User: Fold this.
Amino acid sequence: MSAPDYTVDELMIARVARVFENGDQVVNGMASFVPVCAYMLARRTHAPDLVWLAGAVGLDPRPQRVPASTLESDLWRDSVAYVEQYEDFWSYALNGRWLTKFMVRGAQIDMYGNANNSAVGPDYHRPKVRLPGTAGMGDMGSIGKRLFYWSSTHDPRTFVERVDWISCAGHLGGGDERARLGLEGGPELVVSNLAVMDFAPESKRMRIRTVHPGVTVEQVQEATGFPLLVADDLGETPAPTAEEVRLIREEIDPDGTRKTEFR
Amino acid sequence: MSAPDYTVDELMIARVARVFENGDQVVNGMASFVPVCAYMLARRTHAPDLVWLAGAVGLDPRPQRVPASTLESDLWRDSVAYVEQYEDFWSYALNGRWLTKFMVRGAQIDMYGNANNSAVGPDYHRPKVRLPGTAGMGDMGSIGKRLFYWSSTHDPRTFVERVDWISCAGHLGGGDERARLGLEGGPELVVSNLAVMDFAPESKRMRIRTVHPGVTVEQVQEATGFPLLVADDLGETPAPTAEEVRLIREEIDPDGTRKTEFR
Amino acid sequence: MAGKLTTAAEAAALISDGDTVALQSMATFTAPMTMVRELIRQERRDLTLVCLVGGIPVDMLAAAGCLSRFIGAAVSMEQFGLCNQFRKAVERGDIVFEELSETALLARLGAAARGLPFQITRGLLATDLIDLQPDNLRVIDDPFGGGGSVVACRALAPDVALVHAHRADEQGNVQMDPTALWPDIRVFPKASRRVIVTVEEIVDGDRIRTEPDRVVLPSFAVDAVVHAPYGAHPTSCFPRYGYDADFHRGWTGAARDPDAARAFLDEHVRGPASHEAYLDGVGGVRRLSSLERLASA
Amino acid sequence: MAGKLTTAAEAAALISDGDTVALQSMATFTAPMTMVRELIRQERRDLTLVCLVGGIPVDMLAAAGCLSRFIGAAVSMEQFGLCNQFRKAVERGDIVFEELSETALLARLGAAARGLPFQITRGLLATDLIDLQPDNLRVIDDPFGGGGSVVACRALAPDVALVHAHRADEQGNVQMDPTALWPDIRVFPKASRRVIVTVEEIVDGDRIRTEPDRVVLPSFAVDAVVHAPYGAHPTSCFPRYGYDADFHRGWTGAARDPDAARAFLDEHVRGPASHEAYLDGVGGVRRLSSLERLASA
Assistant:
């Protein structure tokens, strides 16, 4: 049963939660309210055994609610383990057997799922905008992870034809370029505030799979800086259920911290 | 004041202790009673601030006495820190700034200070004697450490012209071969139950520096499987002082465990 | 063993203009702010800063003109924004940003820690960031074949590492209570030529010996110990105190404008005559107690 | 999460003839002896054993004919001698000894742990051991120049890792009290495809949560948990109990002769119907209590 009222953050969280299953291990970085809420929702619904490494530190924590930071100790209160990062976390992340799905957000995402969190403009050394930096995405795009993007700002400034600088390797120039370089994994899904997109099997171009209720394909295209493909079986993104909305609002994030991503 | 009575193990321990100074860091491996007693003696005499990593685990422990094993927890009781080995100990050992002096014992030692703890005989895969294995000496000989050998079995079976297999890199073929390969450090001293030897500056051949009281150069040569050089300023190894002997017998090793190396 | 206890001012003298400084820092997590303030007061110039994720200390050092280069994976204060003074300086070309993925940065530092010329990662492969740093990153093949390409990351040995921890003895055995252990305290010190540690409390060695497994730095790897209670403020020091959100907001407000940033640094960094005066200036016991409540909530 | 609690016999079924088994072991320090005995009882054959320093478990497995290959840095029981059954088998050519220095072994395992084709060390340079293993060790140059030569060590991913620890919950979060942490528990499990852990005690997850920094293996990296009190006997398990010197002497006495060794294994390994029967057979409560006194002396 879908919820009588919900907001787009709740719809995105519910959609993202479905990406993760029992047996997966997931991690979050800073300012990652959609992933964190989605992990907490999945653990309360269909994936109670989803293993969550909060902030890449706290294993299966019991935070009372989503705190103001997703990279601070409030998030990993009452963890069963603190995972030391330099040797332990990175071995688990690089090994290939664990943490196979990784959520990413980029200041720019392009039609082949490459992302840029480095610099805007053609001169890297004198950028128009210096972005925060590649951090872990510069690793996760290259080491075989299945990448899942989220974006609360679906607009032509974020969804660009080609990123100025590839700081997270997606499908690169498209087609089989990624495979030819020996890179496994890569971008699978983009959940934005307007639609859900995947990448076409051959060309690896971004493709609309579902539009959110009340959003048209035309609106999505207009908000995108490159031509989007449209899936043959285009559908509508399912609205969150009443129970999902209740969990998000009452148990997971009663302070509404998730909405800071949607300003 | 030299001790009125002492045994060769005590003489060796006192001589080895003088190798180490305040500001040095030292480590011991298994069955290493001469080094362990020497570290404990140095800390009680001229080098109270010698940093000792007992068994490569326990930092500055307070063992009551030398236990039956030098690689067990009895040795690192009441340490100020337990140093995790995989990431921490090996970083400190490999870095080059710390643990610059390393004590080694080989089943075979040759005229250029190479050592063998791997296999006796020309066929490595069907050895006459399978020795315990290179363990840490295969590293320490190659990473720039200053090497100090001890041997309680100065005989032609131990002191061989060329080791069958170099499992610890000494001066290799002698001369500047070690330097040409870019290896720093290398063997400096050999303290045996008969004499103290170093390596001649040019040839890097083993050379008698001092003979122990009551031992002649001829006896040392006879116990050695290759021609030894003799230092111009050949002297006698100083006997341990009465206080050194007292410390070893009463405080450090009242059980006489060190003597298991001298059977 | 000679005691290593000293003051922040004296410890900062171990750092020269032009040095490469490895600085503990995450977005708002523990940074050795007492030493950061001291570097600003002593007007160090031309520093290269190495961070995993730079937060407020990076922005303050940039605003004070201390930095010419930054080596790291990201700069952000998370909920408090993007470190505007730092960012503008990079956009002007005043600070060079040598950007590395986390594994590439850790490979460079790990190589220095282990006396190796380089270490490898598969991170960064096929990104645009490799070609931007040909002196530090190079794609090489698996010498055994079959393993494909990897990125060789050249050793990076900072001149000095600055970290903050819960306690130490005077010999420099540094201990952490159970908390997140980031690479900044696990590998930065080992990679660096000198190590300066600020701590919440100085204790007797016998206290350290009660929890020998919680020592994060052994005495021999530490050059100077500075007693600095609340020394991470305004960053957090779990489980003792949380980050100071009001202070961060005050800074980000000021940091939009160079003059306001300078005034802020005058008031909170250059002005206070002592660490105690600094703590009084940011709200004293009342504020610090509220941050402690945050940490134990 | 599905519980991972199982029996030694069932856990051993995860190990097949021909597998490569990474085994926790130092000269006399903690080894997962319950699983070692189970492998002997189940007559596994053609195993490749990976140890840092092999002690009594290696000698027993060699005596029982379970091994065809050993990869490691050393084999010794220290005060109890050189593992004669193992040594004779190597001298006969029945067991291949792939000898590595400690850093070379750890580089190989660390590479597997991190999904890398190789890692490098400067250990072993100029020794004779490099040329003996051209498939696993290769000297390469620093791609940046200036750093000289290093030894590339090919990734080694064992099929299964066996370790013993103080406690775990049923989900497989494994915790150690303060003690030596050797590479065998720090990197062997991460490098291996499956991980079997025996523990002194099974506890509730809430017990683990009281010391989250003392978890050495997180649940997701553990495949099976076996409750085995005194499961390291006759090796030590500090701070709970010391090694059993009498048992070691009994074995080294027997191991001089193949028939005596077989009889010893019959009595202490193949004979006992259960872990409890084994413990009774080696001296029961009286002996175990005396080993506990040794550990706390």
User: Anything to note?
Assistant: The first helix of chain C runs from residue 8 to 12. The mean pLDDT of chain C is 96. The interface with chain B takes residues 1-2, 110, 113-116, 169, 171, 173, 186-187, 190, 193, 205, 208-209, 212-213, 215, 218-221 of chain C (CB under 8 Å).
